[in-house]
Amino acid sequence: MSKAKAEKIDDDLDYEAFKKLDISKDQLKMLKQIFDSFDLEKKGEISVDMIGQILDMLGHQLSADELAAIIREIDEDGNGVMSFDEFANLAARFLIEEEEDTEAILRELKDAFRLYDKEGLGYIGVDLLRDILKELEPALSVTELNEMIREIDTDNSGTVDWDEFKAMMIG
């Protein structure tokens, strides 16, 4: 996106008005960009028929019943369109759910890392990591395991710290 376009979006948004949504300025800008890309006639509204496609873009596939319930909720007056405010309120819910899911996954990963880091040193040895990877994927060859270890142990320390472990599990 061009800098001029980003500044235009900044000018169009009153962040204070959206503070209650508990999303970042960057997330709000992203939502505005998505909304604007669907507001082809530049009327400041988009058809509720686009909700499914937009949520799909945000990584949320919904059943027909879930989508219908959301449309009923958003389009209270039944006019078939929604404003950016309505759209932001809807999309923010999905962004917040996604953040909560990510935080839960990170907590679980941190707990798993602590289980392997029995001595609390802040790292695990690559030999232990090799055993973990073999357990997760028994069909890996020695060559594949060695290659994975090289990619994971980015600083070639012979150990895997929390950041390397997290990158391996998430990335």
UniProtKB/TrEMBL annotation:
Keywords: Calcium, Repeat. It holds the Pfam family EF-hand_7. SMART domains: EFh. It comes from the Eukaryota. Residues 26-61, 62-97, 104-139, 140-171 form the EF-hand domain. This is EF-hand domain-containing protein. Coiled coil: none annotated. GO terms for molecular function: calcium ion binding. It comes from Aromia moschata. The lineage of its organism: Eukaryota, Metazoa, Ecdysozoa, Arthropoda, Hexapoda. InterPro entries: CALM/Myosin/TropC-like (IPR050230), EF-hand-dom_pair (IPR011992), EF_Hand_1_Ca_BS (IPR018247), EF_hand_dom (IPR002048). GO terms for cellular component: myosin II complex.
